[in-house]
Design goal:
By secondary structure, the protein is an alpha+beta fold. Among the domains are: 1-257, no CATH class; 261-298; 305-312 and 584-665, no CATH class. 26% of the residues lie in helices and 17% in strands. The protein has 14 helices and 24 strands. The strands form eight sheets. Strands 3-17-18-23-22-20-4 form a seven-stranded antiparallel β-sheet, with no helix packed on it. A five-stranded antiparallel β-sheet has the order 6-5-15-14-13. A hairpin with a 2-residue loop joins strand 14 and strand 15 (544-555). Helix 7 runs antiparallel to helix 9, helix 8 (410-418) packs across helix 9 (423-434) and helix 8 crosses helix 12 (486-492). The chain is elongated. The protein starts with 17 loop residues before the first strand and ends with a helix. The relative contact order is 0.10. Mean pLDDT is 74; it is low at 1-83, 85-117, 160-167, 177-190 and 220-229.
């Protein structure tokens, strides 16, 4: 094994021995002129650049030995050398014609590259000590405009001596072109297919002497597609084992510091970001809009409301009429739904006499409702009632004359109470309901307070006791409430009382029944109370039927007839004072249904709206009803009230509930 030359004699780069002048060449070697010719510059700027690499020293007689060329085996390569010599001799004239008279380092007019028709053949190394071998020209640097900008910390490190072949054996992580220590590129810069990399001969490490610093040649950082896949060629010559080497410095540097990002990479990265922001904004806006829409649609919809479209009240022109009030006692007249037409006399409570039986019937029916036309349950006459009967007859009270073991239905008991004013039946009803008269009287007083009868006090269920007192105004309130009970109106509308045991019929005490529209009432008389009378009459005014209720009390007469006569004059005058005025025709819009979100549907009157009253009276108008969310046109959904009058309402168009637009744009 030959010892390596000193550092001063070692060439700067690992060079390959090629035949000089074409005397001896590998079978696949290029002509010398083509090997040394640099690529033609692409523009004026690159054409003016100086030629890279030192020129070949032609005065030196000896060529330097190849660093990485293995010696050929003596027995195997003799035959191939003869064949190569013959082929190279034949190719010499062609090389001379192509090179012309130029020197090896001269620059040709056009760059010579591999033929497109014939791919370059792999280069075959020759012996380094061949005298015909000449030193190749250094490869030109690629154009500066095709090289990426290198970071300052990646610039080549100057070296005093070229590295040995052993130092170049570790493979880089990426198969890229590398630069030599002198700054020259070791591979041609051309997009065309480059020639295959030569295989250098292995030179063993010298046994003695310090190892020179291998320096650092940074890998090519530009990211360009590879033009050829790395070729794995077999090694010529004997195999030698290499000593373990420390990892190159560039390996640790790459682990500590990430590779630089080219400037154009940031440009490509910023462009998608700029395009991404409008998309993100649009997506967020769509999500917000979808959330708002869903929230508005899922919110509960307000209940529809029926609103009056007419004026809130109607006033009759003129002055209030004056009724024929009695000279003695007290009286009052009212119209159900309109209020009091007037009153006369003192407001001090006075004995009620049998008029108190109206409250007895009202309380019993409240505790024991009676269906229309039904007789109701039967009740047995109590022993106490039979025992009290002689004393009542002695006092001159009006009686049915109950007997022991007798049974009365609820309806017959009420008829005897209200039509013939039977005191014995009044006490029996109190015991049937509450067990004792005291408890029943307590119910009577409680009911009076609930009706607003502030000047009324009950001490017995029949009213015979003079301590049972009331006023005409309070009795109007009671009779108005009692006339709203169907069973009560059915009972007081009878002219005769017919006993259930087949006894003789007895006339009722209400002499005005059937006259002036009187449909019910109750009379009462005692020496202390005088004549009392309460009445109820129905009168049709225009299209409205009204209920007139009056009370006359404390009339000085030998019987209740005096009070009845006063009542007759009052009911006749009240009916004459009533009048009617129309405020809306059939089909007019009198109300509207509001959905609570800004939408409304007009509501029309099914019939003409008429207001009943008297001169100087102001009648309020209201709408009643709970309109549905949806209804057909013409379907009755409520009423408008004007005093005692009630008029049906129907929507002009179908009700469909709130529209989608109102549900989306609502603020409440």
């Amino acid at each position: 094994m030959n010892e390596p030359d000193t550092d001063a004699e070692r060439p700067e780069t690992a060079e390959f021995a090629v035949p000089s002048g074409g005397a001896r060449r590998g079978r696949h070697a290029r002509p010398a002129g083509e090997e040394a010719a640099p690529a033609e510059p692409e523009d004026d700027e690159t054409a003016d650049e100086p030629e890279a690499g030192p020129p070949v020293d032609e005065e030196s007689g000896d060529e330097p030995e190849a660093d990485a060329e293995p010696k050929a085996e003596p027995g195997d390569d003799d035959a191939s050398d003869d064949e190569d010599a013959a082929e190279e001799a034949a190719a010499a004239p062609a090389a001379a014609d192509e090179s012309g008279d130029d020197a090896p380092g001269a620059e040709p007019d056009e760059p010579a590259g591999p033929s497109e028709e014939e791919p370059p053949e792999p280069f075959e190394p020759v012996a380094a000590d061949d005298p015909t071998v000449t030193r190749p020209e250094p490869l030109p640097e690629p154009p500066s405009d095709r090289l990426p900008a290198l970071r300052p910390d990646r610039l080549p490190v100057p070296r005093s001596a070229a590295p040995t072949v052993e130092e170049r054996l570790p493979a880089l992580p990426e198969e890229r072109p590398t630069a030599s220590a002198s700054g020259q590129w070791s591979a041609p810069w051309s997009p065309a297919a480059p020639p295959p990399e030569p295989v250098t001969a292995f030179r063993p490490e010298p046994e003695a002497g310090p190892r020179p610093d291998p320096g650092y040649a940074p890998p090519f950082e530009a990211e360009f597609p590879s033009h050829h896949e790395p070729q794995h060629e077999p090694q010529h010559g004997p195999r030698y084992e290499q000593e373990p080497q420390e990892p190159p410095r560039w390996v640790t540097e790459r682990e500590q510091e990430p590779p630089p990002i080219p400037a154009y990479a940031h440009a490509y990265d910023e462009e998608p970001r700029r395009r991404r922001w409008p998309l993100v904004t649009l997506l967020v806006a769509v999500l917000l809009i979808a959330g708002v829409v869903a929230g508005q649609l899922l919110r509960p919809v307000p209940e529809p409301d029926l609103v009056l479209a007419l004026p809130a009240s109607h006033t009759f022109a003129g002055t209030k009429p004056v009724l024929p009030w009695p000279v003695n006692g007290q009286s009052a007249v009212a119209v159900d739904g309109l209020g009091t037409m007037g009153a006369s006399g003192p407001s001090a409570p006075t004995p009620t006499a049998s008029v108190a039986k109206v409250m007895t019937a009202y309380v019993f029916l409240h505790e024991h409702p009676l269906a229309s036309g039904a007789d109701g349950p039967e009740y047995a006459v109590s022993a106490q009632g039979v025992a009290d009967l002689p004393g009542r007859r002695q006092r001159g009270e009006s009686l049915l004359g109950i007997t022991a073991g007798q049974h009365l239905t609820e309806r017959k008991a009420l008829e005897a109470l209200l039509l013939i004013s039977a005191n014995d039946v009044a006490h029996e009803l109190a015991r049937w309901d509450a067990g004792t008269e005291v408890d029943f009287v307590a119910k009577m007083n409680a009911t009076a307070r609930s009706l607003g009868m502030t000047s009324t006090t009950y001490t017995d269920p029949s009213g015979y006791d003079a301590r049972t007192v009331s006023t005409a105004a309070d009795q109007v309130k009671l009779l108005t409430a009692a006339m709203r009970v169907k069973a009560f109106t059915e009972v007081v509308a009878n002219r005769m009382f017919v006993p259930g045991d087949g006894g003789a019929a007895r006339p009722a005490g209400n002499l005005l029944l059937g006259r002036y529209g009187v449909v019910g009432g109750k009379t009462g008389y005692t020496d202390k109370a005088g004549g009392n009378y309460v009445f109820a009459a129905r009168k049709r005014i225009g299209t409205v039927t009204v209920l007139i209720v009056g009370a006359v009390m404390a009339q000085r007469s030998p019987s209740a007839v005096g009070a009845i006569n006063v009542g007759e004059r009052l009911v006749a005058a009240a009916e004459n004072a009533l009048t009617a005025e129309r405020v809306a025709r059939t089909g007019d819009t009198v109300a509207r249904v509001e959905d609570g979100l800004g939408g409304s549907t007009p509501v029309r009157a099914v019939s003409s709206v008429t207001v009943v009253g008297w001169r100087g009276l102001t009648v309020p108008l209201h709408v009643l009803g709970d309109p549905p969310r949806s209804a057909d046109a013409g379907e009755r959904i409520g009423t408008v009230t004007a005093g005692p009058g009630h008029f049906a309402l129907a929507p002009a168009t179908a009700l469909d509930g709130p529209s989608l637009q109102h549900r989306l744009l609502r603020l409440r």
